[in-house]
Design goal:
This protein has a six-stranded antiparallel beta sheet. With about 180 residues, the chain is α+β, with helices and mostly antiparallel strands. It has a single domain, classed as Thiol Ester Dehydrase, Chain A. Strand 5 and strand 6 form a beta hairpin.
């Protein structure tokens, strides 16, 4: 068999019946960020969870939502679809990375006063098992490990719909802004 005979007919790969489309809408992040900075991190996270503040555009793009907000802990949920798959039919690793970075950063935010935030310095992920659209509702849990003045540390876990650990992560965040002074 020749290489060309073994190849799939590429014209079939572009058939109209195989075309998918996904429309994503989001709110401009600037006004929401200005509103959130006046709130404590816990207030802002609860406002996003409760749809008082719009979620960040990345959450709308990937399709995840904030399910749980507790002091030092956040859980994001995702019902994955094929738009998040890679070429071997599994969820792209960047999906878990985005979920975890968001959940871990938000877990830190729950402990911050108004006027203070954090940004990611590093993110390390260990992929333990593959995820797919058949994995059920995927949960990404972020937990605060240590809150510091200049840097903070968090840990995260992605679990499939059956509760199996699929990804473990650790991250370091740089603290930005000064807390508002009491008047």
């Amino acid at each position: 068999m020749t290489a060309s005979a073994a190849r799939t007919d590429v014209t079939d790969l572009f058939a109209p019946t195989l075309r998918r489309e996904r429309v994503v809408d989001w709110q401009s992040p600037g006004p929401a960020a200005r509103a959130a900075i006046a709130l404590s991190g816990m207030e802002a996270m609860c406002a996003i969870r409760d749809a008082v503040l719009p979620p960040p555009p990345m959450a709308k793009l990937i399709g995840f939502r904030m399910a749980t907000v507790e002091a030092g802990r956040i859980v994001m949920e995702l019902d994955a679809d094929e738009s998040l798959e890679n070429t071997i039919g599994l969820l792209h690793g960047a999906t878990a990375a985005a979920l975890l970075e968001t959940a871990m950063g938000c877990a830190i935010s729950t402990m911050l006063p108004a006027g203070q935030t954090s940004v990611t310095l590093d993110l390390k992920l260990t992929y333990l098992r593959p995820l797919s659209v058949k994995s059920g509702t995927i949960q990404a849990e972020g937990k605060l490990v240590k809150l510091g003045r200049q840097t903070s540390y968090s840990e995260g876990f992605v679990r499939d719909g059956a509760g199996n650990l699929a990804v473990h992560a650790t991250a370091t965040f740089s603290m930005l802004g000064a807390p508002e002074k009491a008047k």
